[in-house]
């Protein structure tokens, strides 16, 4: 950050890394056969929780920020949501479009950086940021922009690397900005209805092709926005 301005120079390195990973491997994420299942029992705790929340909330408009190859977006589309899927990697976007066509669901895929993506005001009933905010330096700025793009009773689901343990070397080859437990992201959602909040420390990870086994720590939360009241979220 220079003179109060956050640099976006790191975005190019992140784009290049993920373009290479997505081009090299048929599937970088979600290699299991359950990848597009909408049944919470087929998924890990966090993914099961946001899928159940999405189903309870009912079809509407959803925003998937950092959509990767589109597995989360496709599941939301299968639940009846109109989905905008945004990713910085052009290769990821091509794959997300192709996989969505194969599953015969409509997903609007946009090749944009999270920090600068054009977001329609008061549009989204559900916002998913699953494994993407740790690539964003100024998280509060992004969260504020997403808030403006959310409906008055929107649900947000967020998972990102935490500082509880070092970022694995495999991921630290590009700029990564993990989050403190109880830090900026959680503070942003104060006053929301917290449906899930958890800390994972040192969880084993073997899902990325070409990576040695390693471990992650995460902050994960799902929060429902109260209907706007004078002097509350709208005045942040």
Could you describe the 3D structure shown?
By secondary structure, the chain is an alpha/beta fold. It has a single domain, classed as Vaccinia Virus protein VP39 (Rossmann fold, 3-Layer(aba) Sandwich). The chain has helices at 10-24, 45-57, 71-78, 90-103, 139-148, 184-188, and strands at 61-65, 82-87, 107-111, 124-130, 150-161, 193-205, 214-224. Mean pLDDT is 91; it is low at 1-5 and 229-236.
CATH superfamily: Vaccinia Virus protein VP39
The residue-averaged pLDDT reads 91
Low-confidence stretches: 1-5, 229-236
Instruction: Provide the CATH topology.
Output: Rossmann fold
Number of strands: 7
| Shape designation | globular
> What is the terminal-to-terminal distance?
22 Å
Radius of gyration: 17 Å
Number of domains: 1
Q: Largest beta sheet: what is the strand line-up?
A: 3-2-1-4-5-7-6
Q: What's the helical proportion of residues?
A: 25-40%
Q: Which structural class is indicated by helix and strand composition?
A: alpha/beta
Largest sheet: 7 strands, mixed
Name the CATH architecture: 3-Layer(aba) Sandwich
- What is the element string, with H for helices and E for strands? HHEHEHEEHEHEE
Number of helices: 6
Beta-strand percentage?
A: 25-35%
Q: What is the CATH class name? A: Alpha Beta
């Amino acid at each position: 950050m220079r003179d109060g301005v956050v640099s976006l120079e790191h975005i190019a390195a992140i784009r290049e890394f993920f373009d290479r990973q997505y081009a090299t491997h048929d599937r970088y994420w979600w290699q299991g056969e359950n990848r597009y299942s909408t049944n919470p029992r087929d998924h890990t705790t966090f993914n099961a929780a946001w899928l159940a929340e999405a189903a309870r909330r009912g079809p509407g408009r959803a925003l998937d920020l950092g959509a990767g190859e589109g597995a989360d977006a496709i599941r939301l589309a299968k639940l009846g949501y109109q989905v905008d899927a945004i990713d910085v990697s052009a290769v990821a976007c091509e794959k997300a479009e192709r996989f969505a066509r194969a599953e015969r669901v409509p997903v609007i895929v946009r090749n944009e950086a999270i920090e600068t993506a054009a977001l329609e005001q008061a549009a989204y009933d559900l916002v998913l940021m699953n494994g993407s905010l740790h690539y964003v330096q100024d998280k509060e700025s992004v969260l504020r922009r997403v808030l403006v793009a959310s409906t008055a009773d929107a649900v947000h689901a967020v998972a990102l690397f935490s500082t509880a343990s070092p970022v694995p070397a495999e991921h630290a080859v590009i700029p990564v900005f993990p989050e403190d437990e109880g830090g900026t992201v959680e503070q942003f959602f104060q006053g929301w209805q917290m449906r899930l909040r958890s800390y994972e420390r040192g969880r084993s990870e073997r899902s990325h092709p070409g990576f040695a086994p390693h471990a992650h720590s995460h902050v994960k939360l799902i929060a429902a926005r109260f209907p706007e009241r004078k002097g509350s979220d709208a005045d942040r």
